[in-house]
Amino acid sequence: MLLYRLAIQILRLGLWCAAALGHRKAKAAWRGRKGWRSRLKQAEITARKNGRTGPWIHFHCASLGEFEQGAPVIRLWREQHPEAPILLTFFSPSGIEGVTETGADHIDYLPFDTPRSAMEFSQALDISDAVFVKYELWPELMRALHRNHTRLHLVAARFDVGRHPLNRWGGLIRKHLGLLSTLQVQDLQSAQALSAFGFEAQVTGDPRVDRVFSATQEPIPGLIQERLEHIHLWKGGRKLLVIGSAWPAEWKALKDILDIHQDWAVLWAPHDIGHPDLEQWLRREHTDYLSLWTGHTPGPGTYKTFENVPGTPDMLIADEMGLLRFAYGLADFAVVGGGWGRGVHNVLEPAAFGIPVLCGPNVAGFREIEALKQSGGLKVCATAEDLANQCGLWMESKEAREEAGQSAAAWVVKQRGAALRIASALQSC
What we know:
- Helix content is 45%, strand content 16%.
- The chain is α/β, with parallel strands linked by helices and 429 residues long.
- The protein has two domains: 2-7 and 47-205, 3-Deoxy-D-manno-octulosonic-acid transferase, N-terminal domain (Rossmann fold, 3-Layer(aba) Sandwich), CATH 3.40.50; 221-415, Rossmann fold.
């Protein structure tokens, strides 16, 4: 613990220095933590005024990605326990800045994991249960909450033998796993890895599946629906390939795909809308940059909306946050980027719509990708040439596309229900 406490102080110092030097996220994280004590006091007053009479339940996510897993559980808990106030905390600014509708009564940064802050945080509210999503475990906070008789839970977690904390460096975290009232994992492989260290885990699944499936069943927000109608009009009678979270590697592989398959249109959604390579993308003939943000001109090139894009370009590069997950529903198939970078991005979003998926080779550790591949709903392409060739095959074969899409949808439906299983486990402990 002494080494851990020293590491936390170094982390604080590093964040302060980065903030002082003007790093945007570091500045947001440092400033955002100021005043958390008074905000929690006000949250308590507001919750009681709003009729929340029960003890608090605390959900903690590292960032926006983990919130995608926690969101279905939070939503279900709100429906089942309308009397219980919900506290949602994040470590990263991406969570605070990225969430909109959460179902929580209060959203805040988690304080730095020091003994004093952890003790004060644990006593600021009457917290019956604290739920850590995926891997976000903070020893000081866990110890303080446990001393205060708060039940602790880890949900939607994944573990591998030989990877932290199941390696020689993970002793501190493994010690604190013993404080958990429930240890809930996504799959049997994780449970088996934990059993080798003497931990018994419940396999309750990955609630991201519930999250993406709900997007296919619920009413689409009005502004997004308007955008989708414009995309539908733009593509006209052409079939549509959506390339989501695209990086330069995907562009290099597929920028000329329509030279052969001219009855198709391609909608590109770059992972980084400010990437300098977008300047090169725009130089391709019949490609245009589409900004859907009213009054905003992000990225390169001239500001465009659907009303003033000239003609019907066969490729559009779009930039609106929140659009991609719904745009997949218009696709005939999808390519998900990141496979030649740090790792493939979210393949569950297109799969939930029954859209077959292609991606690059960097899929290590993404068990949902392996499962979708085994089901026939996804293909992993080893090289850029393989990706272009497989795109060509699916463009030519409606039967192959539809068969793969049906397999993807069937797999998603089979995996649903994790949020209900997690919530049931929380209540039964």
